Amino acid sequence: MSTAEALKAKFPEDELVFSEFRDNHRVAVPAAKLMPILSMLKSECGFDMLAELTAVDYLEYEGATDRFGVVYVLLNNTSGERLILKTFVNDPNPSLPSVYSLWKSADWLEREVYDMFGITFAGHPDLRRILMPDEFTAFPLRKDYPLKGRGERHNFPIVTRADS
Amino acid sequence: MAMKDKPDNIFMTTLDAAASWARSNSLWPMPFATACCGIELMATASSRFDLARFGAEVMRFSPRQCDLMIVAGRVVMKMLPVLQRIWLQMPEPKWCISMGACACTGGVFDTYAVVQGVDRFIPVDLYVPGCPPRPEQLMAGIIALQDKIRHGGTLNGTEFAKRDQSNGPTPYDSDELIRIREANEKLISLN
Amino acid sequence: MPFEVSDLAEMDAPEKEYLWTLNFGPQHPATHTTLRLILTLDGETVINALPHIGYLHSGFEKLGEHLDFNQYVTIVDRMNYISPLANEISWHHAVEKLLGIEITPRCKYLRTILAELMRLHDHLLNVGTTGLDLGAFTAFLYAFYQREKIYDIVESASGQRFHTSYTRVGGVMFDVNNAWVDKIRDFLKGFMPVHAEVHRLLTRNRIFIDRLKGVGYLSGEDCINMGVTGPLARASGVLRDLRKDEPYLAYPDLDFKIVAAKDGDCYARYLVRMQEMLESVKIIEQCLDNIPEGPVNIDAQTHIVPPAKPSVYRSIEGLIQHFEVMMPNRGYETPREEIYAATESPNGELGYYIVGDGSPRSYRARTRPPSYIHFAVFPQIIKGHQLSDVVAVLGSLNIIAAELDR
């Protein structure tokens, strides 16, 4: 039984949107059903590795209806099958359940998504900023944040020869 | 120079020149290697290029033992306070080489996180351009710095005391302009 | 055998004050670049390690949204700077998958040769610095001399010794000639004795074995659960290599083996890397023997690659076509689609998630950096070991800070 059939058998079909592009098999799921679907994929379909977790800000994307898309790339190590699972969250207060309980690799990947996009993951053991300094307030990979920043990179004391 | 009425093995010189000569040939670099340039710094110190030929091979990773800081690689917001602290920890006299385009100007990384040139926040004596500079270029830089020390150095470092202002470009200027222009364009496109 | 952390739980409460905290990095020679660890120590035993990263975060992914597919290659170069070309090949592999381009056979072979040279490049440095961190300086110098020779090879192909920016969408910057092929043959001839020499210096060296064996154990299940790939996973017995499992470039035609070990400790990782170098040499030799003739870029009529220089200089059509490709505001149509594509970089699975919005510029260019995922494993595998093992484990994980932080 293929993964798509297994998913369709367990969850209502109209909630899952299957698509294919080149060799990528993708499915879009509603955020509310994310956790049951992922845990079923892990326990029943053998997707034992979370290869990648990332997010996309669709603010300026033509024809997009949701603000953030969160992407899970799952991998079945025995069969080599990949599945790309996608879900959408919206402002204000975008939030998803954490999948740390299923795959430990989600730990840092979720922290990075939180750091860059401000999407919170409920149930994550230690959701802090990871790449940016703690005192940083913006979320840099959001589309409304400028490439060159808002001047944070200039905001340091100057050490001259006289000081040192 | 040797004097006529003195034996051949006695030389006369100023104290400054003697000190500068000694200092210039015994530079102890502190490799502040953050990124790609750090690998070229390693290449400079290892087999083919062998920095030891120019008397600057004693890489010391403790700032207290060094007198030449080589900032190799881009310095980002989170790293800059560390850089400044390490610079302050180094004993006088000390020099700083900014190695690579990223350390000099930010290079290709004109982004929110990268400091646009370390010379805005710490004093820099010599810039080595390139992305990353070839080892030969870094060596040329070190030789040029030795030259600078030999010709301008003083025993008690008065040449440093004169420079009481930041010798880098003033921050804000161009970036502020760009940001204002971008904001204006956005306004125009909205109207 | 390191003692269990749970053994310590009993003497937890009142004596807790004698545990002390050590800050390691971000500027420390053994971290190679910029990592920071907060270690909690009981005497010399590491009870807990808390990594702090981001000391080299420079906004690669944000830049990827502002540069087009060819321009961004200069940035991905600077990601894993131990093996720059492997990043380029991976990036353009993903872009070509998005655009649906099938590159020419010659280009496939050429990129395979370069990818494997980069694997040598990476593993040489890793083996060398692992030795260096443990006090064996000679192997480092030997390894670096071979790296210089690879730099020369790469330089004669692309004109730059370090950050080559060599690949392009649908091909490479310049084709190579037979002299270049001979140069690689020469290099391989000289490489084998050096590899054997490093083996003799390190593999059975008593101190080296004592420092690495049994240190930093990672089980196969943990590897999978924590997303670890590449030499690290293979050293723990996970037989996964994208070159075999999801073949790309010229790998389906080539005869090579996946190197794996069972032990899962630092020494196994060292052995896997050493053996992988020999497999890479085998792959390169096969490629050199079979490299096909023909064009290296795809057909210029696709308007994705610039036409050949003679036609640009001598005909107006060629000039216009060149202009159309090069000008940022012209460009070509790309699908409004999203793709995840990965290659086996020297460090593990290097993937790109690209969102295309119809322009020759990605809407989102996400990297799946192996170093980032591997470093998350560190706190788990260092627990219960000695302070001096921190250096050995860091070396064997091969964390590249620019890839870690991007």
- Total strands of chain C: the figure is 8
The radius of gyration computed from the alpha-carbon positions of chain C, rounded to a whole number of angstroms, is 23 Å
Counting copies of identical and different chains, the oligomeric state is heterotrimer
Structural class of chain A: alpha/beta
Q: Could you give the distance between the termini of chain C?
A: 36 Å
Reading the helices and strands of chain A in chain order gives HEEHEEEEHE
CATH superfamily caption of the largest domain in chain C: Cytochrome-c3 Hydrogenase, chain B
**Count of separate DSSP helical elements of chain A:** 3
What structural class do helix, strand and pairing data of chain C support?
mainly alpha
CATH class (first level) name of chain A: Alpha Beta
CATH architect. name of chain A = 2-Layer Sandwich
- Beta-strand fraction estimate of chain C: 5-15%
Cα separation of the termini of chain A: 70 Å
CATH superfamily of chain A: NADH:ubiquinone oxidoreductase Nqo5 subunit
Binned, the helix content of chain C reads: 40-55%
Number of helices of chain C: 17
Question: Under CATH, the topology of the largest domain in chain C is which?
Answer: Cytochrome-c3 Hydrogenase, chain B
Largest sheet of chain A: 5 strands, mixed
SSE diagram, text form:
The complex is a heterotrimer of chains A (164), B (191) and C (406).
Chain A: H1 3-10, E1 17-21, E2 24-28, H2 34-44, E3 49-57, E4 68-75, E5 82-89, E6 95-97, H3 106-117, E7 120-122
Parallel strand pairs in A: 2-5, 6-7
Antiparallel strand pairs in A: 1-2, 3-4, 4-5
Chain B: H1 15-24, E1 29-33, H2 36-45, E2 68-72, H3 80-89, E3 95-99, H4 101-105, E4 126-128, H5 135-152, H6 158-162, H7 173-190
Parallel strand pairs in B: 1-2, 2-3, 3-4
Helix pairs in contact in B: 1-5, 2-5
Chain C: E1 20-24, E2 36-42, E3 45-52, H1 60-64, H2 73-77, H3 84-99, H4 105-133, H5 137-158, E4 167-168, E5 171-172, H6 178-203, H7 206-212, H8 220-225, H9 230-235, H10 242-245, H11 266-290, H12 309-314, H13 316-326, E6 338-345, E7 348-356, E8 362-368, H14 370-375, H15 378-382, H16 389-397, H17 401-405
Antiparallel strand pairs in C: 1-2, 2-3, 4-5, 6-7, 7-8
Helix pairs in contact in C: 3-4, 4-5, 4-11, 4-16, 5-6, 6-11, 11-16
